[in-house]
Amino acid sequence: MTVLHDAVLDWYDANARDLPWRSATATPWSVMVSEFMLQQTPVSRVLPVHEAWMERWPTPADLAAEPTGEAVRAWGRLGYPRRALRLHAAATAIVEQHDGEVPATYDELIALPGVGDYTAAAIATFAYGKRHVVLDTNVRRVFARTLSGVEFPAQSVNKAERELAAGVLPQDEPTAATWSVAVMELGALVCTAANPSCTRCPVADQCAWRAAGHPAYDG
Ligand code: SF4
Hints:
With about 220 residues, the protein is mainly α. Helices cover about 55% and strands about 0% of the residues.
């Protein structure tokens, strides 16, 4: 696996986008807000709204102190505004149960309103550098292609897929955290759903789907 790890991690080092929620000074709250916003909205549309939210509500307590209607209004055109209500509810729970600090463990995170498996794993990983399997659409597609030799993953995450992802997760915590964001970025920028750029892919020589001649997805 080291070859795969090195290829993806080196590529990420050279090509990662500079996003505010990935900066060294990003707070766990900034990461959490970004994860809610990115669930169904592309990065380019999330960026300005995320910036405005961080200016207006730099901590969970700042958001929790305002009526829910303000959160929905400030959600703007991100779509699925129910996410703003969930984020407000989560901020309120963080204030009431965690002294206003975004909790660091998966178990505490998943207990928050509106936080499911993916979001809990993503916040623990990206905000606190923990070691978790983080399976979003991009990561799932990269693994389906490189490891399983199929164009797309199953409709929803199953046990075998989770085990496969766990099997390639680097052992040490900081590397595992970077690995998760690096695979995600590879899926977002290179191994895209419709037009994967295999010619500039760092794992092209290790990709099972490419080796098989890019067979069409048969469901
Ligand atoms: S070789 Fe192509 S299909 Fe395989 S991971 Fe890279 S971009 Fe995706």
